[in-house]
Design brief:
GO terms for molecular function: O-methyltransferase activity; protein dimerization activity. The structure is a single chain. The chain is an alpha/beta fold. It folds into 4 domains: 70 residues, no CATH class; 88 residues, Arc Repressor Mutant, subunit A, CATH 1.10.10; 80 residues, no CATH class; 215 residues, 3-Layer(aba) Sandwich (Rossmann fold). The protein contains 20 helices and 10 strands. Strands 6-5-4-7-8-10-9 form a 7-stranded mixed beta sheet, sandwiched between helices. It has a 3-stranded antiparallel beta sheet with strand order 1-3-2. Helix 5 crosses helix 8 and helix 7 packs across helix 8.
């Protein structure tokens, strides 16, 4: 069978499987034309494994059939989509369209509502390229409305309130909006100078967190998290913390509860959420496992914001001493010596090996014989076939069948996008299994297993004192 026929077969059989499961559940697969809701998207969770090869095959089929020159030009031109997308998001267009309802708004009316000095004709062109990529819909000439994808950028507040209190725009938002806003702000600006940065002998080989594209773009010598604490960056700091707190909702529901038996920990066991931000991960654990005690550690400015969040959302955790909020620099000695679990969710990937090793070494020095280290991070596969670490359960990732790329191509591409994000902003990386094992070993930890949650971006990397 030819490659294009085989790709078509994978798509056809996969779609039939998904449709059968939807029919059996009595729930339709969500339409692109409808705004996103968690309830309507619930069926997707049931078919994630079926969808991955379809997405991979569809993208590979497009790459095969498309004129090669057109493929590379379109890929290079994604910057134009990002520019349009960034402008639309910053202007609060999504919220204006939500308030208008499914009939949409003409671009002239959008400009009036968002109170920005924008040219409606240019806004229409920005929205049209996004609609071509299935972000927004053009329902009539120059009339646009939200769709399933664009609605995820909704901050969930009245437009009037966002305009009146811009610093609080992302507070209590669903989270996706905050995460995307980081990409179209810091990341987008850093990306513009990346080629200069990576080919500059003075920065090309640096692993310092204050010698990255973001510093070049923003004209600062402060590392990202120090820069966030600078005057003038209050919105960026709040937005980042909210994005990290809410990012647990981007995962498979209950993913943090899977792959590690939190319930088996004895009553009163201490879970230390190192670099835990304002506590989104801990909150998800606390809601189910109230027999445990929790410590959230982060920078002082972050802990102040965490205090406000927990006082509002889970005040009883503070009142009954189930939770302690502790300012701590994880590059210094770890003060907690009786932790049952050191939990680090999307922390180690932020740092180059030298800095990550320092964090892990301090944790190893504070670890008791019974302490377990749980890293929640992505595990980066290669784009070719590879051998795993055979003696570590979960080390070998599932691979796609030929003729698909072993890493599922576009369907598995998020890890590589975030890997470049690390180059731009933090200096870390999304590591392969081998690199993870070597890093842990160098800091006195032994990799015991990798718990992979099907369909989830993040996996649990579990280690014990070596």
């Amino acid at each position: 069978m030819s490659v294009i026929k085989e790709l078509a077969r994978i798509i056809n059989e996969g779609v039939n499987t998904i449709q059968s499961k939807c029919d059996a559940s009595g729930k339709p697969f969500p339409s692109l034309d409808e705004p996103y809701t968690p309830e309507s998207d619930a069926v997707r969770i049931q078919v994630i494994a079926d969808a991955l090869p379809i997405i991979a095959a569809a993208n590979q089929l497009i790459a095969t059939l498309q004129i090669p020159a057109m493929s590379i030009i379109v890929a290079s031109g994604y910057v134009h989509v990002s520019a349009a997308f960034a402008t639309i998001a910053k202007a609060n267009v999504v919220e204006a369209l939500r308030e208008a309802g499914p009939q949409g708004l003409h671009v002239k009316e959008i400009v009036e509502k968002i109170k920005k000095p924008m040219d409606p004709a240019k806004l229409a062109r920005m929205l049209r390229i996004c609609a071509t990529y299935h972000i927004f819909r053009e329902v009539a000439p120059d009339v646009f409305t939200n769709n399933r994808i664009s609605s995820l950028l909704d901050k969930g507040k009245p437009l009037k309130e966002i305009l009146a209190k811009p610093l609080e725009a992302f507070d209590e938002s669903p989270g996706c909006a905050a995460f995307v806003d980081i990409l179209i702000d810091e990341s987008f600006k850093a990306a513009a100078v990346t080629q200069d940065h990576l080919m500059d002998p003075s920065t090309a080989f640096s692993d310092e967190p204050n010698q990255l594209p973001i510093q070049r773009a923003m004209h600062t010598n402060k590392a990202l998290f120090e820069w966030y604490d600078e005057p003038g960056n209050e919105l960026r700091r709040r937005r980042f913390n909210i994005a990290m707190k809410e990012s647990v909702k981007f995962e498979v529901p209950g993913a943090i509860l899977q792959g590690f038996d939190w319930g088996a920990l004895p009553k009163g066991s201490k879970v230390v959420d190192v670099g835990g931000g304002i506590g989104g991960t801990t909150m998800a654990l606390y809601d189910i496992h109230k027999h445990l005690r929790y410590v959230i550690q982060d920078r002082e400015a972050v802990i102040k914001q965490a205090q406000q969040v927990w006082q509002t959302e889970r005040p009883e955790a503070l009142e009954n001493d189930t939770l302690a909020l502790q300012p701590h620099n994880f590059f210094e000695k770890q003060p907690v010596k009786d932790a049952s679990v050191f939990l680090l969710r999307t922390v180690i990937h932020d740092w180059s090996d030298r800095y990550a090793r320092t964090i892990l070494t301090h944790l190893r020095a504070a670890a008791a014989p019974y302490t377990q280290l749980v890293l929640v991070d992505q595990v980066a596969p290669l784009a070719c076939s590879e051998d795993g670490i055979s003696d570590v359960p979960g080390a070998t990732a599932p691979t796609a069948p030929p003729p698909l790329l072993p890493n599922f191509g576009l369907a598995g591409s998020m890890v590589y996008n975030l890997d470049i994000q690390m180059i731009l902003l933090c200096g870390g990386e999304e590591r392969t299994v081998l690199k993870i094992s070597q890093l842990l070993s160098s800091a006195g930890w032994k990799l015991q297993r990798i718990a992979r949650v099907p369909g989830n971006l993040l996996h649990k990397i579990i280690a014990t004192p070596a």
